[in-house]
Structure formats: C-alpha cells, structure tokens
Design brief:
Cytochrome p450, 4-stranded mixed sheet, two-stranded antiparallel sheet, 54% helix
C-alpha cells in the first residue's frame, strides 16, 4: 500500500522529467571541480558526490534542496550522521528495543551522546517542517509534483499521512537516495581512474556520442551507450550499494529450487522468507570466472541488463554523472601514490601502460587511494563500509 503511493514517482517516465534538474546539479558539480582545480585542493568524492545526490533527492522529495554543492564543506556533517546511523543499524536489527530507546531520547541529549547522530535528529525536525509545509500547499490545490505532494494527494488512509509517519518515509528516501548512489559512483570512478585503458575506452565512446559537452544529448541516448552501460553494470556487480539480505516471500505457493550442479530439487514451503547476500553472488567464481574480483566492463558487452523500476532515479544519476565527468576529464596517474604499511612503503600505480596514462587536457587523478583500504567492502553496516578511518576515494583535478 505504501509502496504503491511512491511507485509512480520512481517510474522511468517520472524520472525522465527530472533530467533538466539533474543536469543542473551535475553542472554545479563540475563547476566545483574547476574551483578545486584552480586551488589545487584534494576532493573527497565520498563527500562531494553525497552533496550531489543529497541535492537531487531533496529537490525531488520536497521541491527544494539545501544546495549542499554550494557550501564550502558540502554539508559534510550530515553525511557523517548517516554513517553514524548505519553503524548503529546492524545492532538495532538484532536488538529490537534499541531503536525505540534511541528514538525516545530528546535531541539535546542525543547531541551530547553522539554529535553525529544529533545532526540526524535535527534533520528529522527539518523534514517534519517540510512535510507540514507541503501539507498546507496541498490543501491549497498546489499542483507542484514532488514525492510528498504525491503521497499527501494519494488514496492512502489518513493514518498513513501523519507527519510522524511521513517523516520516517522521508528518512528512508533521503538516506537511501544520498548514500547508495554516491557510494557506487565513488567506486566506479575509482576503477576508471585506476585503469586508464578502461577510462580511454569510455572516453572514446563519450567523445563520439557527445561532440559538444555543453550540449549533451538527452538521457535515452546516453542510456543506450554500450560501454558506459557495461562500466555501470560492472560497478554495481563489484560494489552493490546494500549489504543487507533483502527477503522475498511467495505467500500462496510453494517454490521449487533446482540445484544447477547436481539437479536435486528442493521444495520451499509457501510463506518462507528467502534471501541471499548480493556480494557473495556477485563475486562467485563459479558464475563470473577466476577474475571475479577484477573490474572488467567487457564481461557485460553483448548482454542485456535489466534495471529495477525503483532505482530508475539512481540509474539516471549514474549515467549522467559518469558521462558528464568523463566527457570533460581525462585520466592522469595517481598523485601522492605511496603509503606506509608498517615500515614498508608500497607504490601504487595505475594500470594500462605508459601510453594510456598520458593525460590529455583537463584530468582527474586519484590521490592516495587504495582499493583494499578505501573502496572495497570491509564492514557490513547494511551499506558497504571500508576500513575504519578510511577517507574514501580522493581525487585531484589537474
């Protein structure tokens, strides 16, 4: 019932109407890249991409955003609060009393106990205020089309439209919309910058498809690019945005599973929850081969990938952001490319050989970023988390 009220706003037709807004946000992102290029400052992709996805999802949910991309710090404290929430979430899943206890605490106390979670509690108050403002505009027959205008105009029972209930919905939509897409984008950009041969293939496709980066073709054209699609699919395979085992239930019928190795059949009774860990399936060597841990977009060429309706917005962001960035920027070798493991210095160099590494024009370069430390899943926090203390993927604009 609740999902039915939201589904129209995440349909492909609805998301395609957001293209102009999304491109404006991406243009702001590229403008910030140029500012960092002029100052020589290192960019934290983990932060700046969350500023982008936060601005996009808030605009769509509420009709306005905090313009985090325009802030000097990109509103980093908010993303820290999301990370703090996900650090607690696994424990709350197993201890059903923990969530209600934390939610019952006043904001002033939570700020003292955990400044990061305190920021999230303040945001909850802001979301409630925004929902109440939208409620008033809906009562005035305002035709603005946002997620919460739609929910409040829907046929949901009034008990499902209370401010408190919708605030929970806002928290889910915003936190998922901010973190998942930004996390996947960071990982994909890392792999492209770490392997100039892959990046050069993508750039060749983009240079042909987008002759003038100031006047790009519409999203359906970008979405149809085969190598860009392979780049995205391979990123989603290696770095799924969620580590939670999402259950599915066939309530009225038994399911029969046939083991592909020995042909044995297993009957799963109706009503049995079924789930799997995406990370394990996505890197299973029996499925993907001995190089299952390698980032190799070519494995997707010639295959048809099917997206889920609920992630149409995320797909559009992935396509538009990656095409926007890599149509403008080439790849340069990593900057500050050594780090110390104990007393031993380890040199990190991009793949692809000397010719592939030669930058052409404006470039992005990884800055002191190591896959095993800053990109790969190390901790399961419902979302993937890297090594504790990692600063994530960092780049310089040259």
């Amino acid at each position: 019932m609740r999902r039915a009220a939201l589904n129209p706003y995440f349909s492909k037709a609805s998301v395609n109407k957001l293209e102009i807004i999304n491109r404006e946000k991406i243009s702001t992102l590229l403008g910030r890249f140029e500012i960092h290029r002029a100052t020589g400052e290192v960019i934290s992709l983990s932060i700046i991409l969350r500023a982008l996805t936060s601005d996009i999802i808030n605009q769509y949910a509420f009709g306005s955003s905090d313009n985090n991309l325009d802030r000097d710090d990109y509103n980093a404290s908010f993303y820290e609060s999301i990370a703090a929430f996900f650090e607690v979430a696994p424990a709350a899943m197993h201890c059903s009393w923990l969530g209600p206890v934390l939610n019952s605490l006043p904001v002033s106390l939570m700020v003292k106990l955990s400044p990061a979670l305190g920021t999230l509690y303040r945001m909850r108050k802001l979301w409630e205020t925004q929902i109440d403002k939208i409620r008033i505009s809906v009562d005035r027959d305002d035709n603005e089309s946002t997620i919460f205008h739609g929910v409040l105009n829907s046929d949901l029972p009034e008990i499902e439209k209370t401010t408190e209930r919708l605030r929970h919905e806002a928290e889910l939509i915003v936190m998922a919309g901010v973190d998942t897409t930004a996390s996947t984008l960071s990982a994909i950009i890392y792999h492209l910058l770490a392997d100039p041969m892959i990046a050069s293939k993508l750039r060749a496709e983009l240079l042909t498809a987008i002759p003038d980066p100031t006047s790009p073709p519409r999203y359906p054209t970008i979405e149809a690019l085969p190598y860009l699609t392979a780049v995205i699919q391979e990123g989603l395979r290696l770095h799924p945005a969620g580590t939670l085992r999402l259950t599915r239930v066939a309530p009225l019928e038994d399911l029969v599973y046939t083991d592909p190795f020995d042909g044995k059949k297993w009957r799963i009774p109706a009503g049995t929850p079924i789930s799997m860990t995406a990370k394990l399936v996505h890197q299973k060597k029996d499925i993907w081969g001995e190089d299952s841990n390698d980032y190799r977009p070519e494995r997707w060429l010639g295959k048809e990938g099917k997206g889920l309706g609920s992630i149409n917005l995320a797909y559009q962001e992935l396509y538009l952001v990656l095409s926007g960035i890599f149509r403008v920027y080439d790849v340069a070798p990593m900057t500050h490319s050594s780090h110390h493991a104990g007393s031993q210095a380890i040199e990190i160099t991009p793949k692809g050989g000397d010719d592939a590494s030669k930058p052409k024009g404006k470039c992005l370069a990884l800055y002191d970023t190591i896959r095993q430390r800053d990109v790969d899943l190390v901790h399961d926090m419902i979302i993937p988390a890297a090594v504790k203390g990692s600063q994530g993927v960092r780049v310089m604009v040259l």
